[in-house]
Every structure is written in structure tokens, then in C-alpha cells.
């Protein structure tokens, strides 16, 4: 399938368009062989095409930015359900990378006022690029902020006013084995979360508790093995009610949600 997608990419046609293909020019064949060679060497397909589909969007990606994964689409589904009926909800995406979560929410809930936070200097150019592309296409503009989600001063001006905080933070425990194409091509800052994978999440929880209004929603993606540890951490940190864990489409524990207590 990846070979078909690469050939379609080289020829500028859809995958279905390959069915009615005439003769392929030599330079396209050479380019196709180069790309399939790189793919066989575990370069991610999305880096070779420069595009990553995510929900209704096609995002620009490449070296330096985490390639958005289909599992995260469900976290967005949950977020949109939470926002339904709110005309102008305030939303913050912590660790936005390509902007997949933030830009999808802005695309699918045009009233939302979304801020995307990214600290990785190698990634934020992609966040900004994708945000500019979506705004030019007519979506409600998303604010992109260079900052660390664990910093106590982050977005101070929004303290207690945010309706929803959503994040796919780095959560891979140091020492865990990840596929070579992940280890070699996704940015380390997007992956590694300290000894138990939850180091960044601890800071994220403090930031989210500060930013959210009472009753505001929190949704955090996590590793398959963190389906008990992350809800336990959220419960133990106080500030939260309705802590729930949700599986992905493969049935693996994938994201935890909660509401800010009080109010
Ligand atoms: N799910 C990612 C992977 O495939 C890890 C992403 C993360 O740490 N947020 O490795």
C-alpha cells in the first residue's frame, strides 16, 4: 500500500488513479524507486510525501515534527463532543506538534478559540505553517504559542477561563523499545516522558488545573500500559472529578479524561 501511495504521490494522482495509469515516464520511475528505497529503510511514509492525513485535514509534516497518529483522532472526537453546544469555547492544545488536535478542533468547531502550545523549536515551524495554511483556507485562526506546557507562567492570562485542555504529550517511558521509524524520525521531545513516561504529564496536570474553569474538561492521550497509572495520577493530584479512561479503536487503553472540580 505504501508503494502505491508513493507512486500516486510521484505522479500527482490519487491511489484510485493508479488503476487507469498510462505509461510512467522514466524520471517518475527513478523518483518512485528512490522513495520506495527510503521507505524500505524505515523513513515514515508521511515524511516522504510531506503530508499526514488527520481527520478532515491534510497536514504538512517532515523531519522535526511528530507524525500525527490515527489513535489521536478519537481524542479529538471526545473533545468535540465536550464542546458541542458551546458557542465560543476556549481551548488549549498542549504540545501541539503538527497542530493536528488544535487545527482539527478549529476546523470542526469554528466558534472555538484555540491556542496551540509547542516548545520544540524544530516542531513549531510546522505548527505555524499548518496553522497559516488552515487560516488561509478559511478556518478560524488558531493562536500558536512557543512555550513549555509545564511552565508555571504559561498562558497566565487564561487562568481559570479555559473550557478544555487537550494534549498528546510525550509519554514513552525512557528505555521502552519503540519502532526504528519512530525512534529515528519522530522528535525526542515528542516521545520521551522520563522513567515512567509520566514526567511531562505531571507538569501538564498542574498547568491544566490552573488554566481550566471549574467544570472545564481535560483529555490526555497515554500509552497502552498507562491506562491505570494515568487515571490514578489524575485522581491523586486532586482538582479533578469524573476521571475516566477510554480505549482506542483497537481496544487498547488510550486516553484519560476528567473535569476540573469546583464551581
Ligand atoms: N504513540 C506514539 C508512538 O507511536 C507515542 C506518542 C507520544 O509519546 N505522545 O510512539
TrEMBL record:
Gene3D superfamilies: DNA helicase RuvA subunit, C-terminal domain, Vaccinia Virus protein VP39
Key words, A-Z: Methyltransferase, S-adenosyl-L-methionine, Transferase
Region (Disordered): 242-263
Domain Release factor glutamine methyltransferase N-terminal: 2-50
InterPro entries: DNA_methylase_N6_adenine_CS, HemK-like, N5-glutamine_MTase, PrmC_N, RF_methyltr_PrmC, SAM-dependent_MTases_sf, Small_mtfrase_dom
Residue numbers binding S-adenosyl-L-methionine: 95-99, 118, 168
Keyword NAD: no
GO term, biological process aspect, one: methylation
Classification via Pfam families: MTS, PrmC_N
Catalytic activity, reaction form: L-glutaminyl-[peptide chain release factor] + S-adenosyl-L-methionine = N(5)-methyl-L-glutaminyl-[peptide chain release factor] + S-adenosyl-L-homocysteine + H(+)
EC annotation from Swiss-Prot or TrEMBL: 2.1.1.297
Domain of life: Bacteria
Residues at which substrate binds: 168-171
Stretches assigned to the Methyltransferase small domain: 81-172
Keyword Hydrolase: no
GO molecular function: nucleic acid binding; peptide chain release factor N(5)-glutamine methyltransferase activity
Family in the record: Belongs to the protein N5-glutamine methyltransferase family. PrmC subfamily.
Described purpose of this protein according to its UniProt entry: Methylates the class 1 translation termination release factors RF1/PrfA and RF2/PrfB on the glutamine residue of the universally conserved GGQ motif.
Protein name according to UniProt: Release factor glutamine methyltransferase
Native organism: Geodermatophilus poikilotrophus
Gene: prmC
Amino acid at each position: 500500500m505504501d508503494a502505491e501511495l508513493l507512486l500516486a504521490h510521484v505522479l500527482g494522482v490519487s491511489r484510485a488513479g493508479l488503476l487507469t495509469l498510462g505509461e510512467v515516464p522514466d524520471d517518475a520511475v527513478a523518483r518512485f524507486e528512490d522513495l520506495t528505497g527510503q521507505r524500505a529503510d524505515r523513513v515514515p511514509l508521511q515524511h516522504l510525501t510531506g503530508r499526514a492525513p488527520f481527520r478532515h485535514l491534510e497536514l504538512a509534516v517532515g523531519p522535526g515534527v511528530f507524525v500525527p497518529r490515527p489513535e489521536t483522532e478519537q481524542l479529538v472526537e471526545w473533545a468535540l463532543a465536550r464542546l458541542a453546544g458551546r458557542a465560543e469555547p476556549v481551548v488549549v492544545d498542549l504540545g501541539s506538534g503538527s497542530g493536528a488536535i488544535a487545527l482539527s478542533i478549529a476546523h470542526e468547531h469554528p466558534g472555538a478559540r484555540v491556542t496551540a502550545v509547542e516548545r520544540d523549536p524544530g516542531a513549531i515551524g510546522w505548527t505555524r505553517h499548518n496553522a497559516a495554511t488552515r487560516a488561509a483556507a478559511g478556518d478560524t485562526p488558531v493562536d500558536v504559542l512557543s512555550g513549555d506546557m509545564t511552565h508555571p507562567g504559561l498562558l497566565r492570562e487564561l487562568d481559570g477561563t479555559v473550557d478544555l485542555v487537550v494534549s498528546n504529550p510525550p509519554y514513552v517511558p525512557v528505555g521502552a523499545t519503540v519502532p526504528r521509524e519512530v525512534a529515528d524520525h519522530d522528535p525526542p521531545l515528542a516521545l520521551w516522558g522520563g522513567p515512567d513516561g509520566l514526567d511531562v504529564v505531571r507538569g501538564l496536570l498542574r498547568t491544566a488545573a490552573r488554566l481550566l474553569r471549574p467544570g472545564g474538561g481535560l483529555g490526555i492521550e497515554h500509552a497502552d500500559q498507562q491506562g491505570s497509572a494515568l487515571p490514578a495520577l489524575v485522581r491523586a493530584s486532586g482538582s479533578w472529578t469524573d476521571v475516566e479512561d477510554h480505549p482506542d479503536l483497537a481496544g487498547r487503553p488510550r486516553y484519560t479524561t476528567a473535569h476540573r472540580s469546583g464551581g
